[in-house]
Amino acid sequence: MATTEIGTGGGPDRQPEIDWVAAERSPEFRELIKRKRSFVVPATIFFLSWYFGFIILAGYAPDFMGEEFITDGMTVGYALALTQFVMVWGLGWWYLRKADRVFDPLAERAAEVALQAGAEGRARRFERGPTDESVRTDEEARPR
Amino acid sequence: MTYFAADVNELALGIFAIVVAITLGITYWASKRVTTATDFWAAGRGLTGVQNGFAIAGDYMSAASFLGIAGLIFLFGFDGFLYSVGFLVAFLTVLFLLGERMRNSGKYTIADVLSFRMNERPARAAAALGTLAVAGFYLIAQMVGAGVLINALVGIGFELAVVITGAFMIIYIVAGGMLATSWVQIIKAVLLMTATTVLTLFVLGKVGWNPVDLFREARAQSPEGEAYLKPGLFLSSPIDTVSLGIALVLGTAGLPHILMRFFTVPDAKAARSSVMWAVVLIGAFYVMTTALGFGARAILGEGATEAVGTGGNLAAPLLAEEVGGGAGTVGGDLFLAIIAAVAFATILAVVAGLVISASGAVAHDVWSNIVRKGEDSENEEVWVAKIAAVSIGAVAIGIAVIGGAGLNVSFMVGLAFAVAASAIFPALLLALTWRRFNTSGAVTGVLLGVFSSIALVIISPTVWPGPDSEGGMLSFYDLANPGIISVPLGFIGCWLGTVLTREEIAERSFDELYVRSETGLGAEVGTGLTLTGRRAGDREAVPAGTTTLPHP
């Protein structure tokens, strides 16, 4: 929620001042991306492997999937299918916790820094006159 | 043409009427509150995570999930459950890769995100094409399914059932937009979860509350014996099973009607909590459908194979009738009628979500941003959306009625997922994460994804020469599910289109999209409309649909 309020706080006249290239390079934003990636990338690799492992076993090893698990009537396949449900709930819950505690505060910080830099940039340009505006816009759009 | 068969189920019709009356009442109420484009497309962005979680569940779980999976399990045992697993795991793809980013950087449609930093018109056109393909195939499958099911459950003629479904779907959207659609989806989710839970409890009660006894009894009742609890009775080709898995787990993250729901919440935090609520509901639901499927097998037995119809769609309703006391008893009739009404509500919620996403592609993407280049008024956009919703609804009704109950739709939901996974998912993911990705890449990827999926399904044995034939038209190609080929093709298209071209710099940079999608900076704000209609006082001042960063 905090992140949105930062976003909506400025109003249309102030917002376009954000220097997106600088914001993207800011240490705060890099930190957010780094932390987020270090969770999302392994988690995605894990759930895709676990899921496709299950699907491949179902396709290529039906007899193994049909073997008795713990008690007659319960099969390895059904038990593995249930682990997929547990995985979805578990990873989902873990991600939400991480996002609330780690990613959101970092995102908020990165947004604040970008807004501040934007406000300072505007103040500087106001002193130096409007010619800067076009220069800066070009810079923003320059690809890397 | 008979509109009413001799055996109209008046009780079911009565419960239908109550459900429909409630949703129409809400739609009328919503119509007075939906005043701006943001209200119409995104319910004012005022839904809470819980509300949107229920709405996603209602949007997602089609009659194919409810009756179809229970039926597949009844007929083929374990293989039916494979679908459920894929349908659920897919939400991790949504949660980790797209949900929050969509909320942060989009406005009303997936094309907003795809075209954000690109040459807008071609990128939007590609996204709109992908959306219409997915929504179109899905919608036709749902409409034909609706006709067949309502016909079987209530005794109304197929054509009339299709027309009624289509008419309500159009009314919800034209009058109440996303606000009414969200309500219909939430009500449906509550009805579906309640009915499934009650039915599951009755089934478990019958076998002494031990689920494993249910599996044993189901196995005993199946002529397949041991094989009934193993994979392979329905999905007999291993490579096809894997291919299906790919389409399911990536396709959900490319379904426009699901992604569109993320625009209805105020921020990224609510977007992710809505995914969590949705997976709790959807997961619990799919676990329970195994109780229904195996329960139908254990309780109804092999004798019911004919009665459950092709695909086993009537297994769950017949099971309800049986545990309610049996055919002809008050309890049995009541249970059957309730399940029939829930199935109807299920279909209505899904088709409404599909039509509003398709009308978004037509009105917001094609009309407003491509034809009118963003110079039309908000009012005009909403009117075009309503006209589009009526037209799309009418075309879907027309195709379903002309195609008739015999239209082979078994491949269409699979095709919708394949297109979503091969065309929409790769392009969206790369637009949000790959700096170098450009307009040519997006257009090539979407086109290759859409057309390779369609072409591969056409030459698959299920379509050509026909569902009952041996092998496909091409002797070396016999996949029913194209995902394993079309998804890589979609990604390759995105990559090739990008590396082979150099492009003029777009108005907005990747940096802007990247920072916005990850931090929520400059995200679209709501209008103060909430699901219950109150407008929060402090938000009243925000002009509707205003973005804090003016769209160029």
Largest two-chain interface: A-B, 70 and 73 residues
Form type of chain A: rod-shaped
| Quaternary status | heterodimer
Q: What shape does the CA trace of chain B take?
A: globular
CATH architecture of chain B: Up-down Bundle
SSE class of chain B: mainly alpha
The tally of strands of chain A reads 2
Question: What helical percentage do the residues of chain A reach?
Answer: over 70%
Number of strands of chain B: 0
Sequence stretches where pLDDT stays below 50 over 5 or more residues of chain A:
1-14, 129-144
| Continuous helix count of chain B | 19
Largest sheet of chain B: none
Order of helices and strands of chain A: HHHHEEHH
Which keywords apply here?
heterodimer; A: 144 residues; mainly alpha; two-stranded antiparallel sheet; 2 strands; rod-shaped; disordered N terminus; disordered C terminus; B: 552 residues; Sodium/glucose cotransporter; globular
What can you see in these coordinates?
The complex is a heterodimer of chains A (144) and B (552). Chain A has 144 residues and is mainly α. Chain A has helices at residues 2-9, 20-25, 27-60, 62-65, 76-128, 132-141; strands at 68-69, 71-75. Chain A has six helices and two strands, in the order H-H-H-H-E-E-H-H. In chain A, a hairpin with a 1-residue loop joins strand 1 and strand 2. The radius of gyration of chain A is 25 Å and the shape is rod-shaped. With 552 residues, chain B is mainly alpha-helical. Chain B has a single domain (10-369, 379-513), classed as Sodium/glucose cotransporter (Up-down Bundle), CATH 1.20.1730. Chain B has helices spanning 10-31, 37-42, 49-60, 63-76, 78-105, 110-114, 120-154, 158-206, 211-221, 238-251, 256-259, 268-300, 315-323, 330-371, 378-403, 412-433, 439-458, 483-499, 510-519. The model of chain B is unreliable at 538-552 (pLDDT under 50).
Write the layout of secondary structure elements.
The complex is a heterodimer of chains A (144) and B (552).
Chain A: H1 2-9, H2 20-25, H3 27-60, H4 62-65, E1 68-69, E2 71-75, H5 76-128, H6 132-141
Antiparallel strand pairs in A: 1-2
Helix pairs in contact in A: 1-5, 3-5
Chain B: H1 10-31, H2 37-42, H3 49-60, H4 63-76, H5 78-105, H6 110-114, H7 120-154, H8 158-206, H9 211-221, H10 238-251, H11 256-259, H12 268-300, H13 315-323, H14 330-371, H15 378-403, H16 412-433, H17 439-458, H18 483-499, H19 510-519
